[in-house]
């Protein structure tokens, strides 16, 4: 497995611009956003590579049986096609690899995290005319087929295995210790899916301090989403200082201090102190 390296600064800035434009469009395209996340991670993923990923999804959709039937038939057809014939699935080891969060790598390796495998399921089914959507269960992303009163859930991480109501309850209880709430079964918005992917990448990088480069571009893409936590500004400032960009980090600390000053003046002063400390490291 090759070590992924982000692109040069000019290309990275272009990827962020394209990502922000797509995220703020009237109908953000999930695959485009996922591939731009891939381009931020992998300098080898250019426009031709992104087109190839789209073509692969088209190819997989073109091999689907025509109109399998109701939700259960669609779930079974996708499991047979993607999980069986093409071998898409996941395992515990996939959580250790950044590639498991990148759509172009998941299409190549046939392995990935639950949410990326779910993107493959959703996009192949959507292109084939299936009634599919993502379901963002706490701790484990799955796909849903059909309307709420006839919903079928499937787990792409387990090759597309159909889930019973008890299975979903166990997944939620294992992740949160709380019971399954019906609101958890609602279709996930594309931007929520991408935000969760970026959160996974940031968590991966947080466990690997030597990959602060990954943490930084993931934070910067998250800041490009129309809605994001203001505290990401603090995270970006901290990462810039960690990577030796003391002036950039100081400016970001100051900018975040302005955001929080109206509600927490003491926190704002602490942030300005961190900005001063960052500038002092230039001496």
Description:
- Helix 8 runs antiparallel to helix 9 and helix 10 packs antiparallel against helix 11.
- The chain is built from 12 helices and 4 strands; from the N terminus they run H-H-H-H-H-H-E-E-E-E-H-H-H-H-H-H.
- Helices cover 57% and strands 7% of the residues.
- It is an alpha+beta fold and 283 residues long.
- Strands 1-2-3-4 form a 4-stranded antiparallel β-sheet, sandwiched between helices.
- The chain is globular and about 65 Å long.
Strand order of the main beta sheet, please? 1-2-3-4
Q: Give the low-pLDDT segments.
A: none
Supply the helix-strand structural class: alpha+beta
Q: What is the radius of gyration computed over CA atoms, rounded to a whole number of angstroms?
A: 20 Å
Q: SSE string, helix = H, strand = E?
A: HHHHHHEEEEHHHHHH
Helix content, binned percent: 55-70%
Percentage beta strand: 5-15%
Tally of strands: 4
Shape, principal axes of CA atoms: globular
Largest sheet: 4 strands, antiparallel
Oligomer: single chain
Count of DSSP-assigned helices: 12
Give the termini separation: 41 Å
- The average pLDDT is 93
Question: Which keywords apply here?
Answer:
283 residues, alpha+beta, 12 helices, 57% helix, globular
Write the topology of this structure:
Layout: H1 9-23, H2 30-41, H3 47-62, H4 71-85, H5 103-109, H6 114-127, E1 132-137, E2 140-145, E3 152-155, E4 161-163, H7 165-176, H8 190-206, H9 212-223, H10 232-242, H11 246-260, H12 265-280
Helix pairs in contact: 1-2, 2-8, 3-6, 8-9, 9-10, 10-11, 11-12
């Amino acid at each position: 497995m090759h070590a992924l390296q982000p692109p040069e600064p000019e290309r990275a800035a272009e990827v962020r611009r394209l990502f922000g434009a797509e995220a703020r469009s009237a109908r953000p395209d999930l695959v485009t956003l996922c591939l731009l996340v891939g381009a931020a991670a992998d300098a080898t993923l250019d426009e031709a590579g992104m087109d190839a990923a789209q073509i692969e999804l088209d190819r997989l959709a073109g091999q689907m049986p025509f109109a399998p039937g109701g939700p259960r038939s669609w779930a079974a057809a996708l499991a047979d096609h993607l999980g069986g014939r093409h071998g898409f699935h996941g395992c515990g080891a996939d959580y250790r690899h950044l590639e498991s969060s990148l759509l172009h790598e998941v299409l190549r390796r046939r392995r990935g995290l639950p949410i990326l495998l779910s993107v493959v399921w959703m996009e192949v089914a959507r292109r084939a005319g299936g009634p599919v959507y993502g379901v963002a269960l706490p701790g484990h992303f799955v796909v849903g087929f059909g309307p709420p009163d006839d919903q079928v859930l499937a787990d792409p991480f387990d090759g597309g295995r159909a889930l019973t109501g008890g299975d979903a309850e166990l997944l939620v209880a294992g992740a949160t210790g709380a019971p399954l709430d019906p609101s958890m079964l609602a279709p996930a918005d594309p931007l929520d899916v991408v935000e969760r992917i970026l959160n996974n990448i940031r968590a991966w990088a947080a466990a690997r301090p030597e990959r602060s480069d990954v943490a930084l571009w993931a934070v910067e893409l998250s800041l490009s989403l129309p809605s994001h936590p203001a505290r990401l500004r603090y995270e970006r400032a901290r990462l810039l200082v960690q990577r030796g960009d003391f002036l950039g980090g100081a400016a970001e600390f100051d900018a975040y201090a302005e955001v929080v000053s109206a509600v927490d003046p003491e926190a704002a002063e602490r942030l300005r102190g961190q900005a001063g400390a960052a500038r002092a490291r230039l001496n």
